[in-house]
Structures are given as C-alpha cells and as structure tokens.
C-alpha cells in the first residue's frame, strides 16, 4: 500500500507538469444514490455554489441504477484519483465499510451525506434531519390531515436502500407508540419506476376502500402515487404524501391529490456538505454547533454520532410550493 | 494466412490497447500504481461469469444462461446465511458450490432433458432465483463475514488482488486446457458446430450440455464467494445485471451465440477490455451512462468486425480456389 | 385467478379489474410487437430503451410547447426509427438479434441520459390521459387502445401477406430467402413495428404518469418476453399467438395485482412469475414429448 502511494506520488509529479490535474485546490467528490433525479440535481446546485465561493473543485458522479456495487466502483475511482474529501450517500453501508476504511488509511476524509453509514469509519454525517425525525414528521403531518385513526399504505423503492428502510421503520414505530389507531396496511417496493408506484398505490386503495393515506418514501414514487389518487378520483378522500421535491409535486399539491410534501432543501444540504468538506480539508475541526455563512439557520452538531444536522424538515403546501424551484 | 482465431485475438488485444491509450489520455490517474489493483478488482468476478457463459454457448443448442446473476445472488445469500447460523465458513462455501451446481442442474434438466430452449428456460429460472433472493431476505443484506475471509478478495500480492491469481487464473487456465487439448473439449466444439453430426459420431450431446449447465451454476457460486469476500456481505441484488454483462463479455471475446466458435482466451481479454474501459472512463469521471453506451458500440462493432474479417478470409479462400 | 379472487374480496370488483386493465396497457401494446418479432425468429431486449428515449423526446416536445397533435406522432416516430435501427443492424449484419439489441440497449440508455439532461421531466400535461384513464360509454378507454393495436397486429400477421412472410422467415430463414421473400426488409419492418408500438406505449406512459424519469422501462423488455412466451410463442421462431401474448400480459398483471391484494409482499412477485413460466415451459415440453 505505501509503495503504491509513493508510485502515485511520483507519477503525479511527472504528469502534473503536463497541467491536467490541479492538485493544489481541494478536491471534493460526492456520490449520490443514483444519477439523474431532481433531488440530487438540486443538491449539486447548492454544492457547486459553495464550491465556487470556497474555491474548491467539486465532482458529482452517481450510478445509473441503485446498485451498491456500482457505487463502490465510483467510490474507489475517486480514491484512486486522490480526492481530498469523498462524500457519499450510501445505498448499502456494509458494502462500503471496507472501502471507507481503506480510504481513511490513505488520509482521505470521508463523509456521508443525505444517508448514513453509521458503523463505518466515516468522519461525519451531514444530515438533512435524523432518519427518525423524517419518519415522525411525515406521519405527524399526515395525522394532522386525516386524524389519528385509519389505514395507511407505504410505497417505497428497492428494499436494498437502507435509508428508506430506516424511514419506514421510524414511521411504523411512531404509529405504534403515538397513534395506536393508525394501521399500516402494506409496505410495497417498486422497481424505481413511477409506473409501479402507481400500480401499488391503486392496488392499496382497492384493497382498502377506507384507506386514508399513501406515503411515498422515494422521490421516484411521488408522481406515481399522486397520479394514482387523481386517477381514482379520490382527491379529498385519500391523501398522498412523501419526500417529494416541489417541482415534481407542484401540480398535485395544487390539485389536492398530494396536499403536502415533506422535504428539506437539498441545495442547502449540498452546500453544507461542500462547506464541511472544505473546512475539514483545511484542517478545521468540528466540536460544536456551527454558523455557516450562506445558510440561514445554525447547524446542529451531535457529537456522540458525529452528525451535523441541517435543520428541521420543510413542509411544502399549496401556500408555499411556488416559492421553490427544484 | 492467419487463422481466424488468431486474427480475433489480435483484434481483441488491439482493442484493449486502444482502450488503455484512451484511458491514459482521459485521466492522468490511470497510470498510477493503485489503478492496476482498482482495475483488476473487478476482473475475476465478471471473468468467471463470462467463462461460464462461454462454455455454455460453445456447446450450442443454442446455449445461453441468463440465470448466472441470479444464481450468484442466491448462493451468496445461502453461504452468508449458513455462516450466520453457525456453520464454519469453509463448509458454507462448499455448500454454496453445491447449491450453485443444483441450481444449474435445474437449468440443465429443463434444457437438455425437456428440450426447453435455453433462452426461455434460463429467463424463467432467472426470475425465480432472483425473486427468491429478494423475497427471502426482504431486501436486506446478510453481513458479518469475518475479516480473514476478506483477504481473498481484498488482499493483494504485488498489487494484484488475491482472488485473481488464486481463483480466476487457475479456472481460466484449466478450462482453456480442457477446451483445446482434451477430447471433451473437442466434443464441446463439435456439438456447437453441428450437433447432428456430433451425435452421429458418438458424442453424447445432451449429457455433455447437461454437465456444462451444472458447471455454469457452480461457477456462478464461485463468483458469489469472491463477491462475498470483497464486500464481506451478501446482497440479494449482487448478481443483478451480471447476466447481460456476461453475455456481452463472451460475445465480445469471440464466442458465437449459436456455438462452436469461441475461446477462453478471447473471453479473458474481453473481460479486460470491458473493465479497463469502465475503469478508465470512471477515473475521468465520465458518467456510467456513457460507459454503457461505449460498451454497446464496442459489442456491436466487434461482432461486425469479426464478420468482415471472416468474409475477407472467405474471399481469399474463394480467390485461391 | 380463482385463487386470487378467493383471497381478497376486492379482486373481482369492477374498479380493480379496470385498474388491472389500465396497468396492462403499456405492456400489452409492446407485447403485440414482441410477439411478431419473436415469431420472426428474433428478439429485442432494447425495447425498454426505445420506450425511454421516446418518452424523453415526448417530454421535451411538451416542454417546447408543442400541442398533442404533434407530440404523439413525434414520440411514435422516434420509437419506430429506433426500432428500424435495430432491424437494420440485424438485417444488414450477421449480428444475432440478442447481441445486437443488447448492444443497442446500452446505446439507447446512453441517449436517454444525454437527452434527459440528468433530471426528470415533470408536470407534463394530462391532456392525453383520457386514452388510458377515460371511459367511452362506460368501457375503459384502455380496452379500445389494446383492441385497436391488437386488431392491427392481427390483421398484419394473419390476414396480410406480410404476416406470412414473417412466419416464413421465422420458420426457416434460408428457405424463405430461396423462395424470394425479401428477408431483410421483413426484418427491418418487424423491428420497426415493435419500435413504433414502444413509441405508442411511451405516449400512453406519459399520458398516464405525466412524468419522465431515468429508469422508465427498465424491466419491460424481460416482462414482455415473459408474457409472449407465456402466451405460447416459441423463441425458435415461426410460432406464436397474439391472443396468447395478451393473455400472458394479463396473467402477469393479474398476478402482480392479486399478490398485493392478498397481502403477499411484492417481493414475491418475480418468484411467482418465474415459477409460472417454469410450469408453463415444463408442461409445454412434456406435452411435446408425449405427442412426438
């Protein structure tokens, strides 16, 4: 391992003179769970803003499908390229643990962002909110609309995505402890297409004619479940909601099929990720709550778990949905 | 006049060289020492699956095994599950190999005994095995494999990952020898070329193909074991997409879908081409979508080039006659 | 179906059956084309990619402000063009269909990412939604769409000389060529037809979901092949049934729906479909052995 670092250094010096790589600027990479969805595009916008302000080089590359092996490949590519900081939203923590450990050995700073790998050697988790809080908020907001008794269906993406499994668990736990009269009738997993989400939502409504709500865990499910409610003519009877970006949900929020959506501002998350990356790369430390110039609210720090919290989730309703563009 | 197989080899090696040059041009990091191990990490797994696909294709039929990815996922889970239940890891791996063979045998029965076309049969088993892998685990991986096991796939000697020279190279070499220097090998090619003629000259075509599908299942379990060692976890979607990749690699390596033509060496170089291409493009931070597109062009291009070469050879032959 | 009906009282409701129908339209449309291609002796695993690229073009067309009248034909034409590309590749070179379409699948996915510009296209108008969601005199519109597509496909296959050419090529390509059938042209036409149907499916998809995302169409090729085989087509060519394929589609969709209604985890879906395929294949094989 040491020898290859030396070799890499030697080659690097030789080739750097050809002026391809700028190894004096901090290089930060982020690996989302999948490429090409509006959520991560928004994150990128925020991240690039921070990168420009801080003079940092930022690259974002994600797999074409939610495949943990592909994510690992991309991670190792960044390690090989010698990036200073690598942030990742892991699909599956286990597959990444050995790779993260190896990266740390090489002196690379590893962060998780958007989703965590709590048992790995990642230094910090830049979080929008705690998985638990996300689950609780969604259920709480739903209960505000439909009352604290009734049936709810959950539609999620692949079961191999750990963060979504956590949200489902949080919702189920919240239902058990705080709303015993709420019954979660089904949890279905799509193949990542809105079409399947549509199918599952419709089937859930058929099977439970008195269904009160359909909750979508993945942004990929949003258009599907909302459209299902509209198509079934169930606006007002059935509530669809989820972690949906305003642009995707706008029409449905206005029509009432999806009265609200819970999210946070992914641009802020991207911004914070790059800011933290730059801070750590410059040798900074994090010991307490932070004031980050460029973000409105202070960032909370949870020392026991190394978590940096962006803030409370935002709830998008007909009143405010037009203020956002992502 | 060079024989077509050598021509093919030269073609493949030049493609590989071209890909390497392209990768160097795209990213300075390609020439780093650590790049070699990054690249070679992926070779054994795709390689083993590609070899499995190659032998199945060679024997004709036409032969194809779309279930290799699913078998890989399922046996991986079985091994991890058995280990978690207390069975010693080595024993669990052996059980995994047996399971792989059994799953392959199911394919074999369908294809060789019941005469179900291989595409349909292995499509059905792919759905079934893959579905079982997801359904039985609810999508959650089974983790907790010990660190000593990880040495197999994560350890390196001279920068080359262990599982390459410990598992992949021997298997490739063994099968290469069997195919080119033994009677069984000759029989396999004969069955692929003209199964009626082969049968009439005494080759037990069906029995031979049966064994090859079982072997394919077994090799898929080997791939599973290597993946387990690499991730130290069994994921239910480990093999997803691998079947198409294995077909890509086999065909790129010169094997014909309808059998009779192909070589292990070609497949090996094809694996190197594909992994180098992926690694090279990835190091230049070119999105995966482009990598796939490049593979598609490469695949089609190589088959077309192959045909053109053979046509020219045939033309030469005709000219001589 | 009896099994599912017994497991859930909601299965046989009109609403549910209509739902199943609506969910089946995309797959059914594509299956009509896949059946013809398989009868021809070919196969197309890139059809999901064709669907995706067509959908993106449709999305972009809407965003450019084009009216429905233009958007739908543009989408359909895109599908046909991509299908023709497949056909051309397969007819002109000796690349086997499965390899060719595997390659084009990769290429189409690359196109998809190129055109979609890295994000979804959302909030598309629902002006065409009636095609899938609407009713005509109380009968769901989907019935008419499927009916129309299958009627045309059936006519092409069974009533017109073109269909006989397709069957001939599928049964014995060499003989077909000797008899003077324009094999290459027939192949191109068959694949183009499938592409065209994929374009139609793309229009229907966008009409229904009003959203275009990057993994549209991931599984549809394999599902279509499975349905076609369930319906009796033989991969070797020359044999296949449109009605059978339609039944195959309904079978798959009914299974998916029935499982959810019975409370079985959706993860068992693929197992059930795979198992059913196996049963059908074995039964078929045993039957053939008995007869021969």
Textual characterization of the structure:
The complex is a heterotrimer of chains A (326), B (321) and C (292). Chain A is built from ten helices and 13 strands. Chain A has 326 residues and is of the alpha/beta class. In chain A, the strands form three sheets. Chain A has a seven-stranded mixed sheet with strand order 2-1-3-4-5-12-11, with helices on both faces. In chain A, strands 7-6-8-9 form a four-stranded parallel sheet, sandwiched between helices. In chain A, strand 11 and strand 12 form a beta hairpin. The longest helix of chain A has 17 residues, at 38-54. Chain B has 321 residues and is mainly α. Chain B has one domain (37-308): ABC transporter involved in vitamin B12 uptake, BtuC, CATH 1.10.3470. In chain B, helix 3 (43-58) packs antiparallel against helix 11 and helix 12 (242-252) packs parallel to helix 14. Helix content of chain C is 74%, strand content 1%. In chain C, strands 1-2 form a two-stranded antiparallel ribbon. In chain C, strand 1 (135-136) and strand 2 (139-140) form a beta hairpin. In chain C, helix 2 (14-39) packs antiparallel against helix 10 (183-209), helix 2 (14-39) runs antiparallel to helix 12 and helix 8 (161-171) crosses helix 9 (173-179). Mean pLDDT of chain C is 81; it is low at 1-7. Chains in contact: A-B, A-C, B-C.
């Amino acid at each position: 391992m040491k020898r290859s670092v030396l070799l890499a250094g030697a080659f690097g010096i030789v080739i750097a003179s050809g002026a391809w790589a700028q190894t004096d600027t901090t290089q930060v990479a982020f690996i989302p769970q999948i490429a090409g969805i509006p959520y991560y595009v928004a994150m990128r916008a925020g991240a690039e803003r921070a990168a420009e302000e801080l003079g940092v080089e930022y690259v974002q590359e994600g797999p074409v499908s939610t495949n943990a092996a592909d994510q690992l490949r991309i991670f190792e590519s960044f390690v090989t390229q010698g990036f200073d900081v690598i942030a990742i939203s892991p699909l599956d923590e286990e597959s990444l643990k050995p790779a993260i450990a190896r990266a740390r050995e090489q002196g690379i700073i590893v962060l998780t962002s958007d989703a965590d790998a709590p048992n790995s050697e990642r230094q910090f988790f830049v979080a929008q909110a705690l998985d638990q809080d996300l689950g609780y908020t969604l259920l709480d907001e739903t209960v505000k609309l439909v009352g604290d008794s009734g049936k709810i269906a959950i539609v999620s993406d692949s079961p191999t995505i750990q963060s979504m499994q956590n949200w489902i668990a949080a919702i189920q736990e919240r239902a058990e402890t705080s709303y015993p009269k709420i019954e979660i009738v089904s949890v279905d997993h799509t193949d990542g297409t809105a079409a399947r989400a549509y199918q599952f939502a419709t089937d859930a409504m058929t099977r439970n004619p008195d269904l009160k709500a359909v909750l979508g865990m993945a942004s990929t499910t949003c258009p599907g479940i909302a459209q299902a409610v509209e198509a079934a003519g169930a606006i007002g009877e059935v509530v669809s909601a989820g972690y949906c970006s305003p642009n995707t949900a706008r029409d449905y929020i206005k029509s009432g099929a999806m009265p609200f959506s819970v999210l946070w501002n992914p641009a802020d998350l991207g911004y914070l990720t790059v800011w933290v990356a730059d801070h750590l790369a410059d040798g900074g430390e994090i010991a307490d709550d932070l004031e980050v110039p460029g973000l409105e609210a202070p960032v909370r720090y949870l020392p026991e778990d190394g978590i940096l919290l962006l803030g409370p989730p935002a709830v998008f309703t007909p009143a405010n949905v037009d203020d956002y563009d992502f | 006049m060079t024989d077509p197989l050598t021509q093919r080899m030269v073609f493949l090696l030049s493609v590989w060289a071209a890909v390497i040059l392209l990768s160097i041009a795209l990213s300075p990091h390609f020439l780093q020492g650590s790049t070699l191990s990054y690249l070679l990490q992926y070779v054994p797994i795709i390689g083993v699956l590609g070899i499995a696909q190659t032998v199945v294709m060679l024997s004709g039929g036409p032969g194809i095994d779309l279930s290799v990815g699913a078998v890989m996922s399922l046996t991986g889970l079985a091994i991890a599950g058995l280990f978690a239940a207390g069975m010693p890891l080595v024993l669990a791996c052996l059980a995994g190999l047996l399971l792989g063979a059994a799953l392959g045998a199911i394919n074999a029965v369908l294809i060789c005994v019941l005469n179900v076309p291989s595409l349909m049969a292995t499509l059905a088993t792919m759905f079934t095995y893959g579905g079982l892998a997801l359904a039985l685990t609810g999508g959650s991986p089974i983790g907790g494999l010990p660190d000593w096991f990880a040495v197999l796939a994560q350890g390196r000697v001279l920068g080359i990952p262990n599982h390459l020279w410990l598992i992949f190279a021997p298997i490739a070499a063994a099968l290469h020898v069997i195919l080119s220097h033994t009677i069984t090998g000759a029989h396999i090619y004969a069955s692929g070329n003209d199964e009626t003629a082969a049968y009439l000259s005494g080759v037990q075509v069906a029995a031979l193909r049966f064994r090859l599908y079982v072997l394919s299942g077994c090799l898929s379990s080997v791939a599973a074991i290597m993946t387990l060692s690499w991730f130290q976890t069994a994921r239910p979607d480990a093999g997803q997409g691998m079947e198409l990749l294995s077909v890509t690699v086999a065909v790129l390596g010169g094997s014909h879908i309808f059998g009779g033509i192909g070589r292990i060496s070609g497949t090996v170089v094809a694996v190197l081409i594909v992994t180098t291409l992926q690694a090279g493009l990835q190091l230049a931070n070119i999105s995966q979508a482009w990598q796939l597109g490049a593979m598609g062009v490469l695949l089609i291009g190589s088959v077309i080039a192959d045909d053109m070469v053979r046509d020219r050879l045939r033309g030469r032959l005709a000219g001589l006659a | 179906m009896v099994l599912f009906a017994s497991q859930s009282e909601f299965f046989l409701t009109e609403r549910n059956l209509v739902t199943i129908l609506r969910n089946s339209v995309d797959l059914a449309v594509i299956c009509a084309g896949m059946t013809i291609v398989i009868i021809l002796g070919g196969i197309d695993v890139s059809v999901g990619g064709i669907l995706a690229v067509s959908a993106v073009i449709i999305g972009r067309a809407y965003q450019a402000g084009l009216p429905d009248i233009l958007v739908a034909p543009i989408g359909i034409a895109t599908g046909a063009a991509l299908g023709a590309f497949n056909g051309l590749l397969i007819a002109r070179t000796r690349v086997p269909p499965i390899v060719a379409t595997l390659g084009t699948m990769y290429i189409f996915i690359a196109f998809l990412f190129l055109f979609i510009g890295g994000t979804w296209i959302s909030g598309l108008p629902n002006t065409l939604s009636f095609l899938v969601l609407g009713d005509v005199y109380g009968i769901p519109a989907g019935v008419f769409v499927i009916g129309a597509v299958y009627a045309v496909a059936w006519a092409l296959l069974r009533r017109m000389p073109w269909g006989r050419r397709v069957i001939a090529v599928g049964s014995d390509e060499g003989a077909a060529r000797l008899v003077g059938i324009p094999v290459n042209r027939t192949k191109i036409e068959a694949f183009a037809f499938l592409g065209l149907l994929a374009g139609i499916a793309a229009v229907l998809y966008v009409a229904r979901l009003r959203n275009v995302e990057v993994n549209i169409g991931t599984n549809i090729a394999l599902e279509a092949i499975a349905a076609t085989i369930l319906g009796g087509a033989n991969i070797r060519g020359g044999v296949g049934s449109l009605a059978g394929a339609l039944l195959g589609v309904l079978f798959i969709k009914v299974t998916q729906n029935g499982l959810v209604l019975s409370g079985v985890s959706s993860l068992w879906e693929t197992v059930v479909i795979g198992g059913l395929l196996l049963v059908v294949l074995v039964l078929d094989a045993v039957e053939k052995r008995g007869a021969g």
